[in-house]
Structure formats: structure tokens, C-alpha cells
Amino acid sequence: xxxFMFLSAVVGMQLMNAGVLLIFGYPSIYSKYLExxxxxxxxxxxxxxxxxxxxxxISVAYYSYRKVSSKYGFIKTKxxxxxxMIGSFLFITAIIFPIxxxxxT
Length: 105
Fold this sequence. Notes:
Oligomer: single chain
């Protein structure tokens, strides 16, 4: 039960970050804000904690958008990333969550 709730929160945060990145693009104030969570060489415990938060809740949306925006132009980036968001949402809600629900219950 708690695993399902945690994975739902992770997927929700990734899709929310992907949606905001889709609106604002890269580079933008929001992408710089997300980039600020990641520390290259963490020295303190709180830097390590924010790296864990970054990798769990932000990294997939952020790095995939950076890769797509560096490869394609503005319009193609919006189209491809938007279609990717819709496809991943449908894949997760139609396939992954029902499998997890059967495993948990």
C-alpha cells in the first residue's frame, strides 16, 4: 500500500515537473531552479539529501527535456515531449499501476 502511494507521488512529481518544463522550456528560470537541487560533489549531509530528492523526483523529467531540446528545435521539442508525456502517463496508469495493484493486494 505504501509503496503504491510512494510510486504515485514520484510519478506525479515527475509529470508535474515535465509539464512545467514543457510550458517554460529550457533554458528558463524553472530549469535553473531544478538544476539547483543537484550538487556535483556533495560534501554535507543535506547536499546528499537534496541529490537523492533530485534523482527521485526531478531527474527523469529534467534530463529527458534537456536531451530533447538540445537535439530538436523549439516546436519539435514541444510536440515530442508533449506526446511523450501523454504516452508515459497512459503507460503508467494503464499497465504499471494495475500490475502493482495486483501485487500489493
